[in-house]
Amino acid sequence: MINNKQLGQIGETAVMLELQKRGFDVININISYSNYPKADLICINAENGKSIMIQVKTGTTNNILTGFVSELDGTIPYIRENIIGPWVFVKTDKDVSKFEFYVLTREEILDLIISSNNWYVCGWNRELKSKPIIGVNVSWLEGEGEKASEPLAKKQHGEYKNPLRETSKNKWDKIESLLR
User: Are 58 and 40 in contact (CB under 8 A)?
Assistant: First the structure.
């Protein structure tokens, strides 16, 4: 049985291989610094010396955790300071044999996390009892939103308008453009 730490390492390795296929050098920060909080990989273009730090989040369900926790009023402490570069979400199956990659720029992940958390915390007809752990739904990474719930639903919520207008699946050009 694969634990969460191993799942994260597998996701990081899968992203490293994808970036190496594209001709970049990649260093896993977590090899020398256990679970560095702001990034997992350093991706380098050896031809021009440009580099970026990338955060990788891996999950086997349609809700991939971000590592952030929301306050009850919807604020997310230190989110802008802690997102320093692009993110790659890795969706895999329980057997960890198939991978889907979703690449977002720093601005896109900030917009997605902040807007979806605001919708989750403030746009539902309920009172939260504890600080929510923030996850990102794979459908949102595909550019989809959420329809408003039916009026008779126990937990009514309004529509979620996703700031991503298209899929981020396999959009490696977002990283490549930063390294040119």
Answer: no
Written as one string, the DSSP assignment of 47-114 is TT--EEEEEEEEESSSEEEEEEE--TTS--TTHHHH--S-EEEEEE-TTS--EEEEEE-HHHHHHHHH
Residue 104, strand partner residues:
87
> How does DSSP classify residue 120?
H
Please write the tens of the pLDDT for every residue from 146-155: 999 887 667 7
In 3-state terms, what secondary structure has residue 123?
Answer: coil
Band of pLDDT at residue 85, cut at 50, 70 and 90: very high
Element of type H or E holding 42: strand 41-44
pLDDT at position 31, please?
82
Burial of 77 per CB tally in 10 Å (0-12, 13-18, 19+): exposed
Do residues 79 and 69 lie in contact, with contact meaning Cβ atoms separated by under 8 Å? Answer: no
d(CA 117, CA 114): 5
Q: Tens digits of per-residue pLDDT, 5-25?
A: 899 999 999 999 999 999 999
Q: How many C-beta atoms surround the C-beta of residue 140 within 10 A?
A: 25
